[in-house]
Write a structure and sequence with these properties.
The protein has helices at about 5-15, 25-35, 55-65, 75-90, 95-105, 220-235, 245-255, 260-290, 295-320, 345-350, 360-375, and strands at about 110-115, 130-135, 135-145, 155-160, 170-175, 185-190, 195-210, 210-215. With about 400 residues, the protein is an alpha+beta fold.
């Protein structure tokens, strides 16, 4: 069993062989992956050593202390938080060896082709079709709200392969090459002024069967791994005290005493305590991951993340008064990463409105918590045993 002392020894050997100050960033990241120090809990040969997940912090701390480069996790968050655990769980050995290393080093960016104009909250109603032709699948459809599609090399994609069975059973999970002919990425400009999201049109795109994840028709099961990891990635991210949205408003409160009122003070205290409680709960959730894959509990963290971000950013705008109504720049941009707390107070206020939609709407996540965490009765579903082709649309 690999222990902390062994990991420190391996980390020291990596640093000695590839000094961060004189080694090319990408060369260092590749060497770190090959040494099993990327995801220590992953299997050997796939960036890990089969060590306890909790020991990753030991490696990260030693590397950070020596100024080693990281893999810019915010830029490749979809790959790290969603694609990688799904590939590890359902991919073939060949798929794991092909995709995981360049995914972790950031050489290849990933996006997620799940939501559609008519299938967002009810994702299982998706209509993008994949039809088998020999050793490939021909895919046609439209996806929407796709972060990073404009910079992505690969995408995780779910499509309907059997319209004659109920909606949850006729879906298959694929890996899509975003450079293939027939993949058309178009920007979706948001209320913030930038186009962080995209819509993706897929026309006669041929996906080899070798890029299928899981069995034909098991796509919904595979997608649950992705979605559970996505909610943990969004709501359970590691933060220091006063990290995230609570940080800027706390800083303004301390530095601008002339803006303070008794009412704002009471509201800030309440939100500060709630943000700290959520941060510690997220830490506990990450520790539970040591025992296995994330479950529906991540939905609760994502709910808290969205509510707190919206309430805190609203408080910050009020605290700043007239300054809070200003906005720094409406220039149309297509950023390479999602920055929930970047720029000014106006940006944070507007961007947080999307937090209750992305990664599962608040309404859907409340149902997940009620049914899968609290064990309450399920809502009546009239379409449960109806073939997808017979559903009203």
């Amino acid at each position: 069993m690999t222990d902390a002392a062994d990991l420190r020894r391996r980390t020291a050997e990596l640093l000695a062989a590839y000094p961060p100050a004189t080694t090319d960033r990408l060369d260092f990241l590749r060497a770190r992956f090959d040494a099993g120090l990327a995801w220590v809990h992953y299997p050997e040969g796939l960036g890990g050593l089969g060590a306890p997940r909790s020991l990753q912090a030991v490696v990260d701390a030693d590397l950070e202390a020596e100024g080693a480069p990281d893999n810019d996790p915010r830029r490749i968050g979809i790959g790290l938080g969603m694609a990688a655990p799904t590939i590890l769980a359902y991919g073939t050995e060949e798929q794991k060896r092909q995709y995981l290393r360049p995914l972790w080093t950031g050489e290849e960016v990933w996006c997620q082709l799940f939501s559609e104009p008519g299938a967002g909250s009810d994702l299982a109603a998706l209509g993008t079709r994949a039809v088998r032709e020999g050793d490939a699948w021909v895919v046609n459809g439209q996806k929407v709200w796709t972060s990073s599609a404009h910079v992505a090399r690969w995408a995780i994609l779910i499509a309907r392969t059997d319209p004659d069975v109920p909606k949850h059973r006729g879906i298959t999970y694929f890996i899509c090459d975003m450079t293939d002919p027939g993949v058309d990425v178009r920007p979706l400009r948001q209320v913030t002024g930038e186009a962080e999201f995209n819509e993706v049109f897929i026309t006669d795109v041929r996906i080899p069967d070798a890029r299928r994840l899981g069995e034909v028709g098991d796509g919904w099961k595979v997608a649950q791994t992705t979605l559970n990891n996505e909610r943990v990635a969004i709501g359970g991210m590691r933060l220091p005290r006063e990290g995230g949205m609570i940080g800027p408003v706390s800083k303004t409160w301390r530095e601008r005493p002339e803006l303070r009122t008794h009412d704002l003070h009471q509201r800030l205290l309440k939100l500060w305590v709630e943000a700290e409680a959520a941060r510690l709960t997220a830490e506990r959730l990450r520790q539970q991951l040591v025992a296995g894959q994330p479950g529906p509990e991540g939905a609760g963290m994502k709910l808290a993340f969205a509510r707190l971000n919206q309430e805190i950013s609203g408080l910050e705008v009020e605290l700043r008064g007239e300054e809070g109504l200003l906005y720094d720049d409406w220039t149309m941009r297509r950023p390479e990463l999602v920055d929930f707390v970047g720029r000014d107070a106006g940006y944070r206020y507007l961007r947080s409105k999307g937090n209750s939609i992305e990664g599962g709407t608040t309404e859907v996540l409340l149902n997940i918590v009620a049914e899968r965490v609290l064990g309450l009765p399920s809502e009546p579903r009239t379409d449960k045993d109806v073939a997808w082709k017979d559903l009203a649309r």
